[in-house]
Amino acid sequence: MSRRLSVNQKTVFDLFSDKGSFFLIPDYQRPYAWEENECATLWNDIHSFAFPDNNYSKFDEEDEYFLGPIVIFKNADRKLEVIDGQQRLTTLMLLLRAFHQAYGTDMHDSRSLAVKRIIEQSLWKTNEFLEPDMSTLKIKSEIATDTDKSEFMHILLTGEASSGFKSRYAANYRFFQDKISSFKTRTPDYFSYLPTRILGNCILLPIEAESQDTALRIFSTLNDRGKPLSDSDIFKAQLYKAFDSEGKKDSFITEWKKLENICGKIFSLSSDNPTDEIFARYMYFERAKRGIKASTLEGLRKFYEADNYRLLQKDHKQTFSNLMLLAEFWNDIANQDRTRFSERVLRRLFVLNYAPNRMWAYIASVYFMQNKDSSGLLDDEKFFTFLNRITAFIWAFTILHNGVNLLRTPVFAEMLNIVNGREVSFSEFTFNASELENALSIYRFSNNRPITRSMLAWFAFSDDEQELLDIETVLEIEHIYARNRLPLPGNIEALGNKSLLEKKINIRASDYRFQDKARYYLERVPGKPGTKVHELQVLAITMQDFTEHDIEQRTEKIISRFIDFIRDNGLAK
Questions:
Q1: Of the candidates 290, 414, 427, 291, which has an alpha carbon nearest to the alpha carbon of residue 359?
Q2: CB within 8 A of 19, min separation 6: which ones?
Q3: Is 193 buried (19+), middle (13-18) or exposed (0-12) by CB count in 10 A?
Q4: Digit-coded pLDDT (tens) for 494-533
Q5: From CA 473, how far away is CA 483, in angstroms rounded?
Q6: If DSSP codes are grouped into helix, strand and coil, which group holds residue 193?
Q7: Pair 208, 283: CB distance under 8 Å
Q8: Where are the domains of the chain?
Q9: Nearest CA to 554 among 501, 493, 496?
């Protein structure tokens, strides 16, 4: 954490009226999101604080009401760039502007004029005589994807929000106008007490960091309610600047929203920040093109900010175009697009969806970016071969080595082979078939190990009769010989006693003996569909029971078939 950190609580007036206060809501921030519910909560809270029991005289001048922290840093233009607190800061500005507008031109008593002057010092730049320059606000929004920010600025400058304004800014401003008007009508003699107490007794905690990175770290540490800014928010700002300089900001905003929508649909379960994921997958392609195969991986933001954000500034057109192509590629995989991929490729991609780690997605992204044709398509035969090989390698490597970090060395090396036009072979990392077979025989395939599901998915689809399942199908690990059935065989947790099975069927069949399980596998229970796992269908038809001997035989069958798979893909020594 930075040593140069300024933390000092201030009243709303002290913070807003400071001569050096000019708040910039930067382009990478998310659009204003507060709605009437949040504004109503704020209004009710500050009204109850300033007028306890609706009685102005019960207020204690020493009392304070804490509105929350604001994380800021002073940028190169000496403006206070807002990292956290955007929502409350924006809302307070709307509230103060509504109060200022409520004074109008018909309130000339000294108290009203004094309060109005205090509000003006908080909203506008003032000269040495504290006279406001009403064309120069103390806040500016540059949010790239907020098409309504012009309404915000118009409201603050003019005090007007016409019926044609449909933004959240306008709706919230009108909400405050209504509340203030009602309050003024009910208590005209005490009206000025409310804005005075908001400005003088409501407290903010501005935390001023020395840099953007420090401010973002502070935000991530403090924030337990809102969604912290992601790396892609920062990247969006850089791209926005580049496209804006060419007069193409509107088309960029439209395309960016499209990118966010795609990523939100396909990466929401695998990443806290879905749009970050597409930048991560593309990063591996750029790393490979630069010849980087070191297993030490830099952070996403550090990679893209290199050379003054060259990829997002100088090379912005190509980079953004590639990001869109890559996102559409993964979107078509998620949707199992049969116009783009053959059935056999989709079957292999379904298995890879159960991979023990995400490394396959990174090398597949590199493969796509390097080998796509002018229409964004891949050669089916070559892609199928590639998918088989990375499946075989990643599965076997995971069995033999703990942790994904060691996997980076062989995979990163193959990424370089891809961008240099060479076939993926893992020739320097092939496996001794006997050692691998022995490792498989003694490996503990517990349910909590991802490789267990990986092996079961691979084995299910090693059956040529296995139909492609919908990607949304929820499959769980099924014990064919039930774990609660007595007597328990010693190898109850062996791979040969496990299969993937649809969740609903798994729940119904979990504790039954095999003869009863078979009824669920084969749709012989009225109104209950059977499994689409072909091997289980065959077992249910051909076997009367499933014994310990059957577990042993099936385990041997899985291992033998996997060793053949390794050999078929040229990965055995």
A1: 414
A2: none
A3: middle
A4: 999 999 999 989 888 777 889 889 998 997 767 788 999 9
A5: 24
A6: helix
A7: no
A8: 6-222, 231-399, 450-568
A9: 496
